[in-house]
Amino acid sequence: MSFTLHGLGVSGGIAIGHVHLVTSASLEVDHYQIPDEFVAKEVKRFDKAVKQVLAELDALEHEVKTTHRGEASGEMAAFVTVHRMILDDPSLSDTPRDIIRRESCNAEWALKLQLDELLAQFADVQDEYLRERKTDVRQVAERLVAALTGQGGAVPEKLRERAEDTILVARDLSPADVILFKDHQVAAFITDLGGSTSHTAILSRSLGIPAIVALHTARDLVREDELIVVDGTQGVVIVDPDETVLAEYRLKQNQWKLERQKLSRIKTAAAETLDSVHVELHANIELPSDLDAVKQSGATGVGLFRSEFLFMNRKDLPSEDEQFEAYRAVAEGLKGKPVVIRTLDIGADKALEGPDQVSAHSALGLRAIRYCLAEPPLFNTQLRAILRASKYGDVRILIPMLASANEIKQTLAAIARAKEQLKDEGRKFNDQIQVGGMIEIPAAAIALPMFLRQLDFLSIGTNDLIQYTLAIDRTDDNVAHLYDPLHPAVLHLVSSVIRQANAAKVPVAVCGEMAGDVNLTRLLLGFGLRDFSMHPANVLTVKQRVLMSSLADIEPAVIKILKADDPDKLRTMVEKLNA
Ligand code: PEP
Ligand code: MG
Hints:
Strand order of the largest sheet: 1-8-7-3-4-5-6-2
CATH class of the largest domain: Alpha Beta
Low-confidence stretches: 68-76
Number of strands: 16
Structural class: alpha/beta
CATH architecture of the largest domain: Alpha-Beta Barrel
Bound molecules: phosphoenolpyruvate, magnesium ion
Distance between the termini: 39 Å
Radius of gyration: 25 Å
């Protein structure tokens, strides 16, 4: 039966393919009695599932080792090893067999009873590391349930067979999950949870494939292998489409591809408005391997390297040398074009793993620069690595989440200390390296002069600026509809930061998702923005809009937009600006 689901389209384009349910299956399993004569068979069914999951983990380990060499290398395989150890433990691989015999129940139910027992024991464990292994135990149990219900198969294994035809359907994906999928060109992603600027959504865009979040019920309503259409531009999923609908979407898919091909013709054109004002279009990246996409996009540099992704999917921290190699690879790869490396922005939805690491600190907690200042050795290691890489290109440092003068002072002192150490060791680096700050907390936007006085450049992180200004958790699908870049308060903050920075002759960029939204290009140009940093997939679309824009036309309209306080009128005025 065909039906339609609506969510938030976070990455445009159309995909037609078969569903693969990502195995974060909930443990809501059926309970039924097994007649005595079939109990031995049920135990065998359980044993078979254990074997299957072992094989999946082997395949996953192989996959991680072969496709992630050089990035997070062997460490990424560590979590697979932990899962294998958990599966090897008799409490998960043996006890459920006893329960099946004792209760004459189905294997899934026996597993659920045993998991409840194990998870209850974790509640009393004092050791934080062991307590965190609770998630691993649950994930292994979920894999077993998936194997029992015939939905198993490690994702990479499945993807290897038919990736380009596969649409991943998940309750939620962590940013770390998405990084693992990056090497498999799946057709699309859809999830029940998440907001449009959650890091999962941002990463989905970095795969350059359609993606929809906040669908609420997709994971429950679609079945493995079912044919679905994903329209990432409209945020619509059509399950089990009939031939007419399929034909319509195949046509749209071809049109989309043709448009992308046409766009590639302006790849090398300078980004200039009709009145010859030059605009820099830079790219946001997560890993050195994104450099290819940057080159394809025609971006003139990297305006945001989210360095925290080097720290994910591993239990330990990357060493100074490992970080240095990653930063150097990007600096050299860009051949003199700028690369803005943002220091570790961990916390909120981006968590580190491991015994001594930060786990999910709230968006208002010890995240980003707050965390780095609280962990001087970790910060020092990263600063040294960035400074060392500055010898190999136009490397700049960007500090996330600054709010107060004291943080700026402490940060600049930490950079000065790292420089002194390198000098003492006789290492070369760019002593004049530029240090910029992200303006993503309303306090920073309001008290801008102290940032202008002390920093070499600014970059407006609109994702967090909107989150904090409107008090809307950017990862929470329940409030995703309230996340509004066109809220007058947001527009006033963004335009005022750009105006003040331009007046003080301090370079200012926007590196949040607003910069890559073509419907906001003219508005931002009208605010005086000349430096946009966005996902590589958006660069050409935004460039096309820049090429078709005249500041002389835009500026008077934008003055009126800033005066409007009726949201509907404001929206209509922005639409007119784009007409
Ligand atoms: C932002 O907050 O706008 C930003 C660019 O940083 P991130 O999305 O990584 O928080
Ligand atoms: Mg941010």
